[in-house]
């Protein structure tokens, strides 16, 4: 069975250890009864650590078609004829939203359901970060009604650990076989037919030291770790430097991915396709919903300053299409507005942010409860002492007064 790396961002990493089977589909039936069968959906879901019913339901929600997963036979069917590349791109979007950690991108996450506030979270086993899934997504509602089986998840984790141990044993056996071949190799100075068996003398000595850590070498030297305070501080600085470099690389990589999404969005808008297709295009992207909304907003209003309100009203139809169900959310739009106006050089746009929010509120593009929640949390990437925050405050105060008056009337 052909395997591929989990996550589109890890596609070209040949040493990536999280893998899943490549999708295999089959079209069945004819006419109105035509269906697409995801043949190995159970194996894919097992590799992702998610129930196969979740992936099947996600395909149906995104394609606007009926879907069904049979627990007894393990059959996953989606009404209609759908190509393998299309389903694969939707699977990547599912992995981004419901498998990979929003913090570090590791797919080793566990679904945690908070029944009190009706939230679906992903807890990362690698970094401990808890990601919040979009509550407006239909699959989130489905997960709340159909929580994963804890016993089955534990069983799958045990199977994964068992497979990992078996791979380690196979690696150790291969190392032992290599050492035996090295010992049997002739030492008459002639070249060997197999270059892999030629091991320099200094490396042979290194292997002998590694094989027996308790014995001293021929010179009676004992290798010890320097436990002095100066040495400990030096090692700590080296580790911190390595961690900082890794964080910088992750940040650079994330910025590159964001710029690629923005370029894709600009190319799409240049084509002038109908708005009805925008929702489908957004759903096909594998990046997080917030990154997609940021890319759309920046593509629409790049370089806009003084006439920010005018341009927003001119292109509001795109924002309406992007904030429909499954195509984004009002909270993502508000975050995009805050980060856009908070950028250096966008001071003119920041002056009109309150008028923009008022206009979007009057047009029913953003609702009162989301604006108040957004203001309470604080805009993503915006300092509360910034011009954006100061200009937004009067509008929020007005909203709160309106809400108070309506409560008094009730």
Automatic annotation (TrEMBL):
Q: Which PANTHER family match?
A: EUKARYOTIC TRANSLATION INITIATION FACTOR (PTHR23001), EUKARYOTIC TRANSLATION INITIATION FACTOR 5-2-RELATED (PTHR23001:SF28)
Q: Could you tell me which residues belong to the region Disordered?
A: 149-197
Q: Does the keyword RNA-binding apply?
A: no
Write the protein's name.
Answer: W2 domain-containing protein
Free-text function comment from the UniProt entry = Catalyzes the hydrolysis of GTP bound to the 40S ribosomal initiation complex (40S.mRNA.Met-tRNA[F].eIF-2.GTP) with the subsequent joining of a 60S ribosomal subunit resulting in the release of eIF-2 and the guanine nucleotide. The subsequent joining of a 60S ribosomal subunit results in the formation of a functional 80S initiation complex (80S.mRNA.Met-tRNA[F]).
Q: Where is the composition biased (Basic and acidic residues)?
A: 149-178
Q: Name one GO molecular function term.
A: eukaryotic initiation factor eIF2 binding
**Member of which family?**
Belongs to the eIF-2-beta/eIF-5 family.
Q: Name one GO biological process term.
A: formation of cytoplasmic translation initiation complex
What organism does this protein naturally occur in? Brassica oleracea var. oleracea
User: What GO CC annotations are associated with the protein?
Assistant: cytosol
Q: Has UniProt tagged this entry with the keyword Ribonucleoprotein?
A: no
């Amino acid at each position: 069975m052909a395997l591929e790396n989990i996550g589109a961002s890890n596609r070209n990493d040949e040493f990536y250890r999280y893998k899943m089977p490549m999708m295999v589909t089959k079209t069945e039936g004819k006419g109105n009864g035509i269906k697409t069968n995801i043949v190995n959906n159970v194996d894919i879901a097992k590799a992702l650590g998610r129930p196969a019913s979740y992936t099947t339901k996600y395909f149906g929600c995104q394609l606007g078609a009926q879907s069904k997963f049979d627990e007894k036979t393990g059959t996953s069917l989606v009404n209609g004829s759908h190509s393998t590349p299309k389903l694969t791109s939707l699977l990547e979007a599912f992995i981004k939203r419901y498998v990979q950690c929003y913090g570090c991108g590791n797919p080793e996450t566990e679904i945690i359901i908070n029944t009190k506030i009706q939230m679906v979270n992903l807890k990362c086993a690698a970094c401990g970060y808890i990601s919040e899934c979009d509550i407006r997504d239909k699959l989130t509602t489905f997960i709340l009604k159909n929580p994963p089986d804890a016993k089955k998840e534990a069983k799958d984790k045990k199977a994964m650990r068992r497979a990992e141990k078996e791979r380690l044993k196979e690696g150790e056996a291969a190392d032992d076989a290599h050492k035996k071949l090295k010992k049997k190799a002739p030492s008459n100075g002639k070249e060997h037919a197999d270059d892999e068996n030629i091991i320099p003398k200094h490396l042979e000595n290194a292997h002998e030291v590694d094989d027996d850590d308790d014995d001293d070498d021929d010179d009676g030297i004992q290798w010890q770790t320097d436990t002095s305070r100066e040495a400990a501080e030096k090692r700590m600085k080296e580790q911190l430097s390595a961690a900082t470099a890794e964080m910088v690389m992750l940040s650079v990589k994330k910025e590159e991915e964001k710029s690629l999404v923005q370029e894709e969005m600009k190319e799409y808008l240049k084509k002038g396709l109908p708005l009805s297709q925008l929702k489908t295009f957004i759903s096909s992207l594998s990046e997080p919903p917030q990154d997609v909304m940021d890319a759309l907003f920046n593509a629409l209003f790049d370089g806009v300053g003084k006439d920010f309100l005018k341009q927003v009203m001119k292109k509001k139809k795109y924002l309406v299409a992007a904030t429909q169900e499954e195509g984004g959310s009002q909270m993502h739009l508000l975050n995009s507005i805050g980060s856009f106006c908070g950028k250096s050089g966008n001071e003119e746009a920041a002056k009109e942010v309150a008028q923009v929010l008022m206009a979007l509120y009057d047009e029913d593009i953003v609702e009162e409860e989301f604006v108040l929640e957004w203001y309470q949390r604080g805009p993503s990437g915006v300092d509360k002492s910034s011009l954006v925050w100061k200009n937004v405050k009067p509008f929020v105060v007005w909203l709160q007064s309106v809400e108070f008056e309506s409560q008094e009337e009730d």
